[in-house]
Amino acid sequence: MAESKIAAPAAAEAEDGSRKKTVVLVAVDDSDHSYRALEWAVRHVATTGAAAELVVVHAKPPASSVVSFGSPAAAGDLVRVVDADLRKRAEDVVDRARRLCVANSVHALIEVIEGEPRHVLCSAVDKHHADLLAVGSHGYGAIKRAFLGSVSDYCAHHAHCSVMIVKQPKSKN
Predict the structure, then answer these.
(1) CATH architecture for segment(s) 22-166
(2) Cα–Cα distance measured from residue 60 to residue 93, given in angstroms and rounded to the nearest whole number
(3) Is the separation of the CB atoms in 136 and 166 below 8 Å?
(4) Does pLDDT of 144 surpass 70?
(5) Strand, coil or helix: 141
(6) Which residues have C-beta within 8 Å of that of residue 29, sequence separation ≥ 6?
(7) How many CB atoms lie within 10 A of CB 18?
(8) How confident is the model at residue 3 (pLDDT cuts 50, 70, 90)?
(9) Can you spell out the DSSP letters for 67-134?
């Protein structure tokens, strides 16, 4: 079976008549699904050369959204511990993303932004004037999506750019 190639969005004309870079924004978290999306984006940017810019975004949840019980004093201590863990996890995610980019000779702007992933990504699309947002798909069924929500579904409907949902290939059994 032949591999299909996806053409890069055409670089728009800047006001001065020069070509502007295509901005590809990719969401990463600590899942293999998001790194599959990053691998796709790195290949995409590498094949388009200097005409593309890669922005990698990790949405770090605020500790207060994870901790919501106990007395105020106990909650304060717990929030500090949880926040330290979330910062460490964000550092690990960013380090893995950076290594993948470096291994493929792709320069990327990497950001960690605190907040709900779906809102962080749509805001980052606007901030960076992204032409394409790449997100991984966890492959949830309708019931899990209804309870857990779907970042990719939300972004597909609310991001002000095209959205590439990178899915895991089905195994051939």
Answers:
(1) 3-Layer(aba) Sandwich (3.40)
(2) 10
(3) yes
(4) no
(5) coil
(6) 58, 59, 93, 117
(7) 8
(8) very low
(9) ---S-HHHHHHHHHHHHHHHHHHHHHHHHHHHHHHHHTT--EEEEEEES-HHHHHHHHHHHHT-SEEE
Residue 91 contacts residue 99 (beta carbons within 8 Å): no
Answer yes or no: are the C-beta atoms of 149 and 141 closer than 8 Å. Answer: no
CA distance 144 to 148: 6
Q: For residues 156 and 103, what is the distance between their CA atoms, to the nearest angstrom?
A: 29
Domain boundaries, the chain: 22-166
Residue type, 121: L
C-alpha 110/C-alpha 37 separation (Å) is: 15
- pTM of structure: 0.79
Confidence at 167, pLDDT banded by 50, 70, 90:
confident
**Furthest C-alpha separation in the chain:** 61
Q: Which residue has the tokens 């960013």?
A: 94
SS3 of residue 149 by DSSP: coil
Tokens representing residue 86 in the block: 């979330």
